[in-house]
Amino acid sequence: MRTEPTPRAVLAARKQFFLQGRAEGPLVASALSEPILRSWQRCAARGLDSAALPRLEPLTSRELREVSERHERLRRLCRPEIESLYADAMQTGCVVILTDDEGLILDALGHADFAARAAQVALRPGVFWGESSTGTNAVGTALVEGLPIAVHGGEHYYDPHGILSCSAAPIIDPYGRTVGALDLSGPAAVDHRHALGLVRLAVEQIEHRFFDEDFGGRRVLRFQADRALLGTAREGVLVFEDDRLVAASRTGLDLVGAGWSALGVLRAGELFEGLPRADSAAHVLRGPDGRELYCRLDPPAGPSGSTAGLRLPPPPRHEERPREEGPLLRPADRDMVARAVRMVEADVPVLIIGETGTGKEMVAHDIHRRTGRAGGPFVAVNCAAIPETLIEAELFGYEDGAFTGARRHGRKGLLREAEGGVLFLDEIGDMPLPLQSRLLRVLQEREVAPLGGGKPVKVDFALVCATHRDLRTLAEAGGFRSDLYFRVAHYTLELSPLRAFDDRAATIAHLWRRLVPDERLSLAPDCLDRLATYGWPGNFRQLAGTLRALAALADPFRPVGPDMLPPEIRGADTRATDWRTLASSSASLHSRAAPPESLDTLTVEAMRRMLDACGGNVSQAARRLGINRSTLYRRLLNA
Length: 639
Ligand SMILES: Nc1ncnc2c1ncn2[C@@H]1O[C@H](COP(=O)(O)OP(=O)(O)OP(=O)(O)O)[C@@H](O)[C@H]1O
Prior knowledge:
Blueprint: H1 7-19, H2 26-31, H3 34-45, H4 61-70, H5 72-92, E1 95-100, E2 105-110, H6 112-120, H7 131-134, H8 138-145, E3 149-152, E4 164-172, E5 178-187, H9 195-209, E6 219-224, E7 236-241, E8 244-248, H10 250-255, H11 268-271, E9 283-286, E10 292-298, H12 331-345, E11 350-353, H13 360-369, E12 378-382, H14 388-396, H15 414-417, E13 422-426, H16 433-445, E14 447-448, E15 457-458, E16 462-467, H17 471-476, H18 482-488, E17 491-494, H19 504-515, H20 525-533, H21 539-553, H22 567-570, H23 579-584, H24 586-592, H25 599-613, H26 618-625, H27 629-638
Parallel strand pairs: 11-16, 11-17, 12-13, 13-16
Antiparallel strand pairs: 1-2, 1-5, 3-4, 4-5, 6-7, 6-10, 7-8, 9-10, 14-15
Helix pairs in contact: 5-9, 19-20, 19-21, 25-26, 26-27
Adenosine-5'-triphosphate binds at residues 327-329, 354, 356-362, 468, 511, 540-541, 544.
């Protein structure tokens, strides 16, 4: 076991690292633990000057209030542990600190004497203690490393922080997301040997408390090898949706030998022989390693559960393994979408921009699914598709008899239908100007007044807008209200066109598997190459359409070759056998056809004529011929 380095050894390591620039020096290696050394190296690589004062930009009290409100749920969950650590902090002259996932201090509670000294180094609410700005410190480094960590005196990167001794642990939610950190900090001169243990225990309790919340009918399995630990924070917890593992505690994953990447992937049957009945009795299960585990399956919480009103998000998507129905994204776009989810959680409007078919609506759906508003509606309005005369009534609703043609009992309007969920305004750039003013008022006042003089009604929805137009330029040219622009474009997420994907072939292969589950059908490598080099002006929409058409043409165990691609994708190759060519170049097919007297030829001829008559629309032609589409494709191709 590594012994604690003496302050003198740490000082020598500092000299070697900072003054002599010897990051690998022997004194450095012997005095510092690996996480601390890694952190110093990260900070040095970032150009932080250890002798300077860290640059701090505390939030204003208003900003801090807003952030605190946003983290109300976390703060509430942590309160009992903060209070019990506070009792300890009062005795040992420490402060207890809760931060968000970026190291922003939300709460600091503790001994007044030390709190005053801590404030000198800005260890107070509203200040970021993330490692990238504040250097090596327990909170920031624990968040980066994903581990509980203690940072004593001179192990801090910045010299002025040498007066501190801090112990922190990241808080991880049931979906494997780091949501904050808990820290106990005190003067460096005092021995805080037990601080890290106390913080770890407190975080274990907090993480266990996440499972008191309503998992919306999912099955919650609690288990432990030691029966006495069942029902305590030391029990493991796994949550299953149908049979699939969707959430877990760290202990739960450790007990079955899995990691966070198992979420959304592992099935109950791969871990246990079967789950017990949902009741309060303890049952015995055999774990994956054959060990006996005592367990209990919680009965699903009803709508009137004690935690009703709390919105627990659905399982997040595990980014390295895109969920089958989610959008395929470039890594940078994935990060932007993850940030957009947090914006929507904080009721900040999100604007999605991107070329047609890049998945703006799909991403909006995905954002909705990943927020606490997933249980509420997703209401999509295409501002370009609704006639200008109707859009106002559609959006804002109307009272009984508000205008000629209005429904008898009035209409609620789409804004109110989005209550509790997400309103998606697609093609917002096409919204008529007068309506923009009304929408702006709704967003400012958070209430809707229906047409016909109805009483204003409070509304609660998160707003996601999309456009393929350059909204800023449109606003500058007067085609879009600038004040509305600034309201809806607080956070802008730009989706990449398909041609900008570095791994186009892999992306296309992935989409193929998703759209074509029949494993017997496949794309030949040279076909995939052609698909990957094409420019895809219609982006994913065009690609998905093309892949579906190729699947209809494909035969089991005969990979689809490039000859089946439409000419513009196939490039110079003119040996066309795809559906469009089938409809238009009957001459070339004629030359390959069998003698005219053959029944087969007549059939194919009839098919071809029908296809021509339907303007190349295969579905329509097949319907009118009374055969299915794949038969039509196949017969024409084999002719
Ligand atoms: N990123 C993606 N991953 C997988 N499929 C996608 C993606 N983006 C789009 N698609 C496919 O393309 C179709 C169109 O997507 P969507 O309507 O979300 O695009 P859009 O950008 O909103 O288009 P438009 O601007 O024309 O309205 C979807 O139904 C889906 O089949």
